[in-house]
Each structure stands twice: as C-alpha cells, then as structure tokens.
Amino acid sequence: MAGSIPFYQKHHRHYDRGYRSSEAESRMRHYQSSSTYSAGTSLSATSRGLKVSSHSGLEEKRLSPLPKRSKPSYLAVDKENQIIGYVVPIFRGSQEFVTGLSDTEEARARDTAAYMARRDLFTSGLEMERSEVISRKEAMRESAERISLNKRIHEHEEHFKRMNEDSLMHAPEFVIKPRSHTVWEKQCVRLHCTVSGWPDPRVIWYKNNVAIDPLASPGKFKLESRYNVHTMEINKCDFDDTAQYRVSAMNSQGEQSAFASVVVKRFKGEIDETLPRPRLGPVSEYGITFQIHIVDTFGVSFGREGETMSLGCTVIIYPALHRYQPEIQWYRDDVLLSPSKWTHTHWSGDRATLTLTHLNKEDEGLYTLRVATKSGYETYSAYVFVKDADAEVEGAPGAPLDVYCLDANKDYIIVAWKQPAVEGGNSILGYFVDRCEVGTTHWIQCNDTPVKFARFPVTGLVEGRSYTFRVRAVNKSGISRPSRVSEPVAAMDPADRARMRGTSAPWTGQIIVTEEEPAEGVVPGKPSELQVTEATKNYVVLSWKPPGEKGLEGVMYYVEKCVSDTDNWQRVNTEIPVKSPRFALFDLAEGKSYRFRVRCCNSAGVGEPSEPTEAITVGDKLDIPSAPGKVVPTRNTDTSVVVSWEASTDAKDLVGYYIEASIVGSDVWEPCNNKPVKGTRFICHGLITGEQYVFRVRAVNAAGLSQFSPISEPVEVKAAIASPAPPYGITILECVRDAMVLSWKQPTFIGGADITGYFVDYREVVDGVPGKWHEANVKAVSERAYRVSELRENRKYQFQVRAANMAGVGIPSRPSDTFLCEEWTIAVPGPPHDLQVSEVRSDSLLLLWKPPVYQGRDPVNGFYVDIKEGEAPEEAWRGVNTKATEKTYLKVKNLKEGETYVLRVRAQNKAGVGKTSDVTEPVLALTKPGTKEIHVEVDDDGVISLNFECSDITPDSKFVWSKNYEEITDTSRLTIETKGTKSQTVFKSPGEEDIGVYSCLVTHTDGASSSYTLSEEELKRLLEVSHEHKYPIIPLKSDLAVELQEKGKVRFWLQAEKMSANGKVDYVFNDNVLSQGEKYKMNFDKNTGVIEMLMESLTPADEGTYTFQLNDGKATNQSSLVLIGDVFKQLQKESEFQRKEWFRKQGPHFIEGLSWEVTPDCCVILKCKVGNMKKETSALWHKDGHQIKADEHLGFTEGVLKLEIAQISRKDAGVYEVVLKDERGKDTSTLNLTDQGFKDLMNEVFSFIANSSTPLKITSTDEGIRLYTFVSFYNDLLQVTWHYKDSAISFSDRIKSGVVGEQLWLQITEPTEKDMGKYAIEFNDGKGGLRRTVELSGQAFDDAFAEFQRLKAAAIAERNRARVAGGLPDVVTIQEGKALNLTCNISGNPVPEVTWLKNDREITSDEHCILKFESGKFASFTITGVNTSDSGKYSILVKNKFGTESGDFTVSVFIPEEAGGKRK
Question: What is the pTM (predicted TM-score) of this model?
Fold first, then answer.
C-alpha cells in the first residue's frame, strides 16, 4: 500500500501509516483528498493523428470512476484503434507541488506550440535559433531547480534518519516503479525507479530473472544510483533485449521487486508492423522456402549430479543466407527452457548447443531441439539420464528433487518435493527442510524431526523477505546430499505479490497497479469459504477469503479450534494475529477430530467468526499409491528395452513412477530413471547387450513410494526386429527393347535381421502422368539387381523397390527417375554397380563392385576407380589406378586420416571407357576404436590358421570368410570355425592352390572387416614354420664350438635357447658315446642352456669329429665340430703353448715383451711390462751379450722396465735382452735392433724429426738466397733431399746445402732469374717421407733478390770502408822530455784520408809533432820531446767513400820531480 505514495512525501518523518497518530491520519486524509490528479485535457488532445484513451480502449464516458489511489496507464492508438505505444501522464502529488511543476509543464507546452507556429509562419533562421536558445535556457533552469529540490529533500530526510534511526527502519518500497517501453530497434531505453527504505536498500536489476552484469556486456547496460533514484540504460536495443526486466531492492527489513517489459520493434518501411516474436538476424524470410536438416545429433546421454553436460546438433538450412538465423528453442519434457544459471544456450551460426552447467536429477528428461523458420520447423529429441552423485555416507539415500513452493503467504510457505529413486541401504525415514534467506549463505533447518510427507509448511519467516529452500532425505545409514535449491519466493500474500509485481502485456504494454482505500472506523466482517486445504498427521492448513468490508488498517485474523462434538473454542494464535488468509496448525493430536473457524480484527475491533469447518480427523488425507500392475518388457535396441506396466489403481495426486532393472541372477537392482515419469511406458537405456534383465516399477506421490510391482519376465537386450527401411539409388544397368536391368542400394536400416530379398514394382509414365504400380517379381530376388521384362519399347517407366526380412516387407522406396525403355547401342560398357566399401582404415579402404550388365560391343577387360574428397567439386575427381585392373576389387591407399571420400568405378572394353557407376556414400577415413586385423597362427602341431576377432558383434552377426572377395563355399581345402567373438579358418593341406587374398566380414556390425594376403613367399614361410612346429627342433643360441682355457684346457660347448628339466645330452666322438671320467668332464646348465665338455689336453688320438646330441621330449637337435688335419694340429699346438705359458707365468714373467718407443723429443725408450715380481726378483739388461750397467737410464715403475737412449746413433745398434730371475723361475725377452730392426727404429726417429720440421722459408744473405727449415732434433743419419721443380738438386759451388744446429738450409749463391721456381726438402723416413715446399718466384723472388742485393752492397761497403785496425793505446803516460812514437794500421779501399786531432782540433805535422801515413796502411804519430803542453786527448780520423772511423788515445805528460814528491 505504501508503494503508491509519491516520492515527494518520503521526506515526511512519519509517512508509514503504522507510525501515524490520529491527528496525523486526519491531516493526511485531508492532504490526500486535495492531491488527487487526473489526466488533463491538454495531454489527451490529439497530436499527429494520435489520440489518448484509457487502457481499456473504450470511450472515457463508459469507464467506471477510478479508485482514489489508482495509477492509470495510457496507451497511444492510431486511427484504427490499434495500440502502438504509451502516453504516460505525469505523476500525481500534493497541490502545492503539482502547481509548482505543472506551471513549468504548461509553459513548456505553450513554448512548444509557439515554436511550431513560428516555424510555420516565419522562415527566418534567426527567429528559430532565438526561440531554441530560450527553450534551452528554460529547460536548464527547470533542471537546476529540480536538482536543488531533490537535494533539499534528501538532506531533510537524512536529518530525520539521524535523529531517529530505529523508529524509521522499514523494508524497501518503490515510490516510483519502472514503466514498460516499446521502442524501435537501435534506440536506447532507460528504466527509472525510486526506492525508499532504511537502511538503504541494495538494488539489483534482472533480465528474465537473470542478474544483469554490466561488465559481462561492456557498453550494453549502464546502471546508476543517485539520491535513491535508480536507472538502467540499455544501449542500442536489438531483438535480444525484448524481455521482462525486474528490479529488486533488499535490506535487512525485507525485499521488494518491481517489473517492467521492454519490447523492441523493427521498422518495415511505410507499414508499422510488429514481428510476432523477436528475430535474431536482419535477413527477411518472405518469399523464401527453407529446408531444415538437423545432423551430427546428440544421442542418449548419461551424466552424474554435479557434472557439466553439453548437447549439440549441427543445423543445415538451405538456401544458406548470409547472417540468417532461425529460431532455436530447447525443450525438456515439452517444456520450453529459458537461459538460467542451470542452462546455457548457444547458436554459432550452424550449431545449436545446450549446456547444463551443474547436473541435477531435475535435469533428467527428454530434450528436444526445435529449429523453426517461416517455412516450417524440424525437431530432434534424445533422453538425458542423470544418476545420483556418490553419497557422502555409505548407504545414505539419494537427494530429493524438484523442490518448489506449493503455497506462500505472510505467515508460512508450503514447500513440496519429490522423493528420490534411490533409498540407499534402508528405507527413507523422512526429510529435513532447510531455508536460506536471499542474499545470505546461511542455511537453517526448519524441522527438528524428519517428515515423511513430501510437503511441509515452513513458518517463522519475516514478511516481505525472500527465501530459497532445499531438502535432504534421511535413513538409518545417514543423510543424503541436499537437493537443488528452489527458486526464491517471498513471504507475502499472493494479492500483495501481484500488487507489487503488477501486470504487463509484452506487445500492448499496459501496467495496471490498483489499491483499495480502506474505510475508516469499520469493524471487519466475517471471513468466508473457510476450508481445510491440506491435512497430514503433522499439520493442517486452513484457507479462507477476506471479508468484503475492511477497516482503516490492514486486517488480521485469529484462528480458533475446538474438538468435535464440543463447543469449547480455543484461540490458536493468541499472541500474534495472522496477517494472511492462510494458516498452518501444528501440535494437533493424531486421530482426533477438530473443527476450525476464523475471526477478523483491526483497530476498530474483532469481527464475527466465520462458519466453522466440518469435523476433520488429524491424519494423512493422501494415501500411498498402490503397487503398479503387470510389467511387460519389450526389445527395443541393443542397449535399451521398452518397459510397460499397468497403472496404480485409485492413486491420488500421483507424481510418477520409478523403474528398476536387474541382471538375471545378480539380485542387484539399479534405477532406470532418477526422475519420476508420469506415463505407463518408458524406454530404459544404458543396458548391456546380450544380458538378460528383469524389471519392476513402483509409484510415488507426496505420501511416499508404493510397493514394488511384480517382477517382469526376463528379456534379452538386443535390437528388436523390424521391417527394413526402403532401398534407394535406383539406376539402370542395361536397357533392351522390352526389358530394363535395375540396380539399387541396400537400405540404411535393415531392421535387425538379414534382408531375405527385394520386390520391384514399375509403372508407366505417359505425358508426365504416372500410372498404376505393377509387380515385376512375385518371388523375392536376393541380388540388388533385377531384369524387368515385358516392357514396351520407347515408353517411359518409373520403378520402386521394397526390401523384406523375417519381420516382413518394408515400405517402398521413392519412385525412381523416369527412364525411357530403348535399346542401348553404345560400344562402350555400361556402369558397374553394387559398389561396397569395407576394411576402412585411417589410410586405406577396400572397394568392391560388380561388373556392368551391359558389356558393350566387346567384353569388359578392365576397370578404373576414381576418388575425390566428399565436399570437393566435380573437377576434383582423380584416378586411383593408372592401369586398368581386371579384378572387381581394389585397395585404395594413401588416404588422409579424418578426410571423407566418395568413389566411383568405370569399366572399359576395346571400344573405350564406359559410364561411371553411382557414387558411393561418403566414407570417413578413420580406423575405428577396437578395430582388429586378421592374424595368422601356427599351432604346436603345425596347423596353419587365419584368425579374426570382433568385439562389437550382435546375436545375429555372422563371420563371412572370402577368398579373393568371393565367399568361401568349398570347404575341401579349409575348415571354418566360429566361437563367440572369434572366427578361424584352418588350412587342411596348404599349397599353391591356397594363394590369394583372404578376407572376413562380420555382418550386423558397423563394417567390421579385415583381409590377409597369402602370397607365395608368405606360404613358403608358413610351411617352414609349420614344419618346425610339427617336427620341433631345440633352438640353439650358438652351435658347437671349441675354445682354449687356462693351462691349455680344451672346452667344447654350445648353448640352447631353452630346455626343460627333462632335457638330455649325448656326447659323441667318432660315433662313440663319451662318458664322464678323468679325461672328459661334462656339464649341463639347464637354466642357461649351456652344454660343455672339458679336456685337459689334446693328443694325436683326439683328432676326429665331436657331436652333442640334444633331446627334450619331442624336440631334438644336434651340433657337430670336425677337428682334423691342420685345424687339429693348430689347436693342439695352441693348447701346448697355453699350457707352457701357464707354467711360465707362475714365476716372474713378461706380460709384454721388449719393445721400443720414440718420444716427441726423439729419445728412444726400450721397455717391457712384467708381472708376478718380488723384491728378490732381478732384472738384467744385456746388449750383444754384455750386461748394461744400471745407471740413471734404467727404470722400473708400474710394472714396466725401461731403458732410455737419449741420442741414438749407429753405435746403439745391437741385440738387447732382459732377464727376469728369482727362485721361482726365469723369463727372457729379446729385442733385435740390428739391420732391419735398427732401420725401422731410425725410420721412426726420422719420422718424428720430419714431422717436427717447420715450413720451408726464404731468407737472403750477402752471398745469395737461402732456403731453410728448423727441426726439433737433428740426427746425423737423417737423409734429406732437396728438390728444384720436382727434380733432385745437383749441388755445386753455387748451390750448396748444409746443417747448422737444428737448421737445414740450401744456399743459392749469386741467384738469377733462372733460379726461380718451386723448391722442396724431402725427409726420408722409410715410409713415404715428408716434403716441405716453397715457391721462389714472383714477388717472393723479387723481394728476396732485392734483399740479397742490399746485403751484398752492405757487405762490400763494410769490407772496404776506412778502418783503424789497431796499435793505439787508450792512455799514454810519458815523462816530460821523452819522445813519443805511436803507430796504427789503417785499412780501406780506396785508401782513406788520415786526419789527426788534439782535443777535437785538427793538428798538422811539424817539427815537434811528426805525422806520417805510409804505404796507405800505416799511420804514425811522433813527438820528439814531449812537454806538459802535449798532454790532452788525441784522435785519428780515417775516411773514404765507404765510411769513417776514428781511434782515440790520451797523452799524459808528467814531470819527474812532481811525481817523486807525490810518491813521497
């Protein structure tokens, strides 16, 4: 009632009637009487051909006056009174607010009229712009005033909320509800509502009861909330947006919802027409006839609670129009499914998918896909079974299902459900009902003790709040899992719920909300039509109609009871009156009879009681149904059975039936359905093929489950036999003047039994009008080809074919094309026919056909097979065989896995290639799971057999063996045995007559077949294996062999693959059986199969043939070894040697004899490896019989004796010997290093030297050009050869070679251009030598020759330059007065010039200092009498054109007295 209060009253502190005083109520009545508003004439005036009328469509004068508080909606109609939209009046309010707002509206209307008048009268753009500016300013001013007013109202309301929060807490109420809209496609829609409530309610928008998430569709929905005004905007509407929208407001005090419809229309040009239902695509259907095909369908499906399941079908619509989408609908048990959190639908453009997000037993049922267009519709159906999830407690029952609200009002909600099919280990004791308030996750159990009745009234609810419910079953083992939660339901009366929801029409769009204003101060009257609607032993439910007269406040009720035959009435609800006209009574004594009555009350008083009910005895009014009658199972498919039964008699409120099945002899019953079925016939799926089953049924209603029906008769699960489907693909194979040969294809469904024959009918077609059908054959024909005779030449005929099996004759095929009966005269053959595909694998298949009936001018001599991908165009046909095959079958290989192919065949004769056959059905190149191949076996008796196994056989399946693809009927050469799923073909006497291709086909399967090619080579191999099995030979891992062991022992041995514990061996020598003794030791290890015979040594008498004969039951074998002649002598010699070696090794001995080794630095090491050494063992080295003294060159480390020869030369040649000796024995090792031995050693040394040589290089000297190389070590015995242009060089005074240290050189004195060329040095090492080369030509020669010239000139200059050869001292000390004479040698060519210097100054010859230069060689310096002035530094400087040189000396003159004084 408060929901109709205008929003502007909400700022009042006490707007709720529950809080008003008498004075306030009087004022509010006066306030409301002055605020009534009806639509003015200004809004009902016609505009643009439209007029406004009331929602009934009648004239206003014929309408009854509206109630005071009603909210009429107005509809816009056209000239023909057809509703096309809405005209909603402005809201009603108090006079002061209406005046303030209506003035603005009137001004806007006047401005609008003035604007239109000015637009018609004036064409000036300036005037129009000016009026638009004025209108915008006033609109902005009006908007600002409204915002300011809303803000003041909000602040005032918040102030009173803070002042008194507790007194104002109340459930949400819609002050203004959203209104419905009808819009054009691509327009935007806004839904507004104003909600009050304290605390502030939370608002959620729903589309078809699914919460709207703006983030899930960005840009589509926009939600806003400001000042308790809530808005949802839908952007660019399309047909998907046509729906019922709900806005829910919820706080701690309760929950309220309001509804509005949005209808999206499409513009169809000039005609305004609304489509009958929303369409998803922009393509028009008109003028097009569509053909619908549903393929790739889903089959019968099985799931378990909690799982996710998807069902899908591919939809093919012809013609295929771009972006055209048909109407896709999904049904469960003929009930249309809508998208929800449990079911999601998807259309991809060619595939429809339904996803069950969380399976529950409620999802079990028959699912139907309906695809509709303007031209019609197609459907496809299949059943979905949902099993119980595993119980949390072993033995606990299954979860209940289909929990729903049976009745709801302010005081209680009756919850109903269905019992589960699975009771667990014990019978169900009862059920617990749980409730959960919407918006929370806390579940509360509603009943303390289990209730057996499948209904329960839940009390203690808060009025106005919404709840969900779930139910759990309980037995002695435990409690089941909870059921799926129910849909939310609000605790309120149905009338209040309808008033809150309102009504809407999807296409005419009217919303009617009415409220009745109660009268003031009137005591309510009597309730009427009091009755008991529900009675069980736990509770009784009463219902009645409210009185016609109500008081000012809401009417409440008191319920009274009394025991029958008494008049002692007791009030049941003494504390809290009942608010709704329904009530549930508990705590009544079972078996007693009661009467009930109801009184109304309000603030004016308590009214008169209603008429009492009849006496009601407390107890269950609904009885458990009786057991169903006879159960009859009938074969259906190889995994299903049709079960029928007689319905329960006198069953009330029957919910349905549960069917259970059991394998005969198991005594284990399993439910066939987990959701009750209402009929008396049900198809039980998921059964095991070939098993015997029995069935039983029981009925269920709210009172419980009935007893089981009698158990049915056993039935075997296999496909029922039915008449076959019609054949198809009728073609003509041959035509003569009065007859035609037809062929056709086998029906796709043969009815579960082999086809016994075919019947052909024909009719004549005259001028396109077909005649009457005539039988062509009275007796059925087994082949798929038949000659129809007695036809008329040049007449046209149609044919039809019917297939027959043991169940009867099927329906005829569609009439064939019209064929003209005229004789064929073409030279080429007719088409092959009866194409069959088998042995399909991922990369190959086998195609069989029958030759054409019409041979042409000449006999058929071959066939060609063509192939193409299934969807490929005709141009894609390509030949499989380039050469015609004479056989009527062909193995097609190199297929692509997963690709679909079609094939055809052409026959040829001498005239050419004839017509193509009919195309085969599409074949998928894929190896099916479980496919097996024919394998060949050879048993222990040597019998050869071909074996094939098929696990998918049916009771009617047969194994058909063929040779060269012709069924084997002659069993003279082989025997066919079949047992269960295996079949075997056994060859009696395999021979060349048996060579061929053997195949096996299993009938009544999905093409199970395989083939095996028995070629000549394979037959030969099998015969060898057969002989081995018939006459077994003990296989040997190794034949008889001989080997020598330690001490020269001789071991004869062989190893068998496998021998049993009973195996025996005979040892034979020259046809004489040997026995164990001193000479022969025999061993036989049966675990490893090793057989051996040991002999200490060999003597000449042991020469001969040794044989080991093996015997193990039926199997035998032998192996021989011949030891005669040189073979025996060599073995005997080796045995003696090994014997001696063993004795030698008992003392110190050589493990490795004396040998030599050359190190990288060209040292030679003589070494030998010794063993069994002791401290007392001596090792003596000898050369040429003379002992080598032990020195640092001898060593013994890690069992190796060594002798090092640092720089080997010819004197080191000789015979070296090492002697090991101690008390245990003596051993000698000798190494001959003479002649060839020494030569080999030196060659190895030379090889090391050669390999160490550096690349040949070029250098220059003052004499000429030198070629040289360096080696790491040089030996005088090394032989080196120099080559010039691959010829050995003859040495002379001008060309010389030599060795300097480790440098080997070749000197070319005074080279000329004739010396240019390739030079090489060759090291001879006795093996092949090593050659180093260098190219002395070109730039290399020029550079070297230039350097030679320079060095030569430098040498000449150095040789001829001026020199002071010697004779001058460094210091001359002379006594004063003495004569000084110094002479030095001078050399140089030409004769140098001589200059003397004193203290770096030139001096000349005079009497005191005489300077002489004689013979150009001798220079003298003479001072006749020296004095102190002659002291100083003297120099002689010699100079010629090649250079200058000087010699220095110092002259020191002393006086004798001074010298004496110094000495003193």
Answer: 0.44
